[in-house]
Amino acid sequence: MDSLPDIAGPIVKRHRLSTRLWHWLNALLLYILFASGLGIFNAHPRLYWGQYGANFDRAWLELERFGSWWTLPASYNLALSRHWHLAAAPIFAFALLAYMLWSLANRHVFRDLAFRRGELAPRHVWQDIRDHARLRFPTGAAALRYNVLQKASYIGVIFVALPLVILTGLTMSPGMNAAWPWLVDLFGGRQSARSLHFIAAFALAAFFLVHILMVLLAGPLNEIRAMITGRYRVPQDKSGERP
Amino acid sequence: MMFARRALLLGATAALTGCDRLARNDQFRRALFSAENFHKWAQRSLMARDALAQEFRPDQISPIFRANGTANPNTPAYKAIWRTGFADWRLRVDGMVARPLSLSLSQMHALPHREQITRHDCVEGWSAIGKWRGVPLRTILDAAGLRQDARYIVFHCADDMGGGRSYYESIDLVDAFHPQTILAFALNDRPLSVANGAPLRLRVERQLGYKQAKYLMRIEAVDSIANIGHGKGGFWEDYAGYDWYAGI
Hints:
Chain A is mainly α and about 240 residues long.
């Protein structure tokens, strides 16, 4: 089913062990956290801005309960959803912290994720958007580097969305509010933090969908193998030129 | 993309059934439930023993304070004390104390008060801010003379949760002696309404709503929660699997 280019390119080492381990741990934990989070949300499917918010207050979003296909556990059980969520959350948070520190230490962030000179020029970004829209994926040596949209989304996820979802989650804890009251001030109240937690979770779900789509379009077997074994077959230009 | 969508749904369904099956395994369940111990340890390590829950300004109070849990105990015994305006109500303080007490509402009013505008966080996710007035639990425990071997304070309530089981909750001594832990008889400058736990309810401000026991009848000092209810320390802990430590 993999649409390998007609000329198979060389196999190279693509992803570090730390990246591969973190990737698959995250795949599991984010699934558990998202599904159990929706189960918790179902207990009160209304969102507010500010310090307080309950049934008599104005909600900015009011939803029906998510169906049993979405939630963990499938049937409504707030206590069990919380057990899943609160057991997975610390592992997820400390794994992110470890990965961030390790990726700074081994220079993964600077080497592979940091924007290079000229990459952020509007013309370059626009070209990248056009290439994505036309599903023209890089080949040869260019396929080994992340393009500017990839870098932006990886940086956005690792340094913005994931820390946001963790910190807003902590802000909902009354115990943490006593320990770190600045968290509540940072997000403008517990109910604002709950709203931002929900928005960040859906931003991550959107990233997941685009990520899966890109893997499917770029050749799922090669991409998945690269994330499991680290070995990646460099796609070649179909016009037949060898590097 | 239909294929991808189906594959995703199929994957999600498979993961869900797998997770639900895992959660029925006793050992896995115990591991899952033990996250509570980590959170309790982490939070207690991060916060000072007497770190205060946030207090708010009067203009930040919720226009309507949503009541949690039982709206009206409606039992014959409760109705009888309600009819007398709680004149016949007494709070019993017993268990591992040197001097068991029996306190009337007017005796509670005569004790030193604390007033605090705090946020009530329900386990369901909503929050309401209200101004509470009451007697610090510490004052009562000091008056009763807590014995050295007491470890937990158990709250027995008037509301019948079905099948003759009354609501109960418990906290440990860290929270029992916390300055914001009060036995409240007023909300927003008015005597506690029935929906909010009249005549007296617990406020333990660093934990979730189900710990805030309403309709208090008896306070018992114990050395272990193993013999209270089914041994998990509270009604929802015993019957629904909620965490005993509700700081998160």
